[in-house]
Write a structure and sequence with these properties.
The chain is an alpha+beta fold. The chain has a single domain (23-195), classed as Glutaredoxin. It has helices at 2-17, 64-80, 103-112, 126-131, 170-179, and strands spanning 29-30, 34-37, 42-44, 53-58, 85-91, 119-121, 135-136, 138-144, 149-155, 194-195. 33% of the residues are buried.
Length: 201
């Protein structure tokens, strides 16, 4: 009985020490994925294998922080798509938890904001789990190495939700470094926003 008690304590200790699941980190190769876009067509990462990279942003319909950054996300696409870095959004939230995050609501949201870039629906959240974003919005810049996409930047779009108070434009600087053939000076920042709404598994 005593041995079983000691064994149980050791097992609990090992469980407690087990790290929480983490997604892609800097330098990791990103596996291809295919998700449904708001135009009802499937979009895969491999569809962009001729691009220089992807500005992948986990974003949603309802988060106040996401809404604060909406115009800046559109501006990023306008600035960098022609230079080879396409903006792509994935909604990480489950509509089972927040009804307003449904695919139909995503369609309306994209239409009302005149998105001309993918806004993808991950009903199973399987792709989201590979990245494990913590907030909306949360950015992963993917660099095309010629044979694969690798994670080059993880974090926030900039340093202030209020556009008038922005001092550091993290994503713009990171993409600028990549376009110039430089190592990204600040490759990881802290994403701030609403938590991801995970469905019960």
């Amino acid at each position: 009985m005593k041995k079983w008690f000691v064994f149980s304590l050791v097992l609990l200790g090992l469980t407690a020490l087990r790290p929480a699941p983490s997604g892609y980190q800097l330098g990791d190769t990103v596996l291809d994925f295919k998700l449904k876009n708001v135009d009802d067509k499937s979009v895969a990462l491999a569809d962009y294998n001729k691009s220089k990279g992807i500005i992948l942003i986990f974003d949603c319909n309802t988060c106040p922080m996401s809404k604060a950054y909406n115009s800046r996300i559109i501006a990023l696409h306008k600035k960098f798509a022609s230079q080879g870095f396409q903006v792509m959004l994935i909604n990480p939230n489950s509509a089972e938890v927040v009804e307003e995050e449904s695919f139909d609501e995503m369609k309306q949201y994209a239409k009302s904001h005149k998105y001309d870039f993918p806004y993808l629906y991950d009903e199973s959240q399987e792709t989201v789990k590979k990245f494990m974003p913590t907030n909306t919005p949360h950015v992963f810049i993917l660099k095309n190495t010629g044979s694969a996409f690798t994670v080059a930047y993880i974090g926030a779009i900039d340093d202030a939700s209020n556009p008038s108070k922005v001092k550091q434009r993290f994503v713009e600087a990171a993409v600028g470094d990549l376009l110039a053939g430089k190592t990204i000076a600040n490759p990881k920042t802290k994403a701030i926003g609403c938590s991801i709404k995970w469905k019960d598994s």
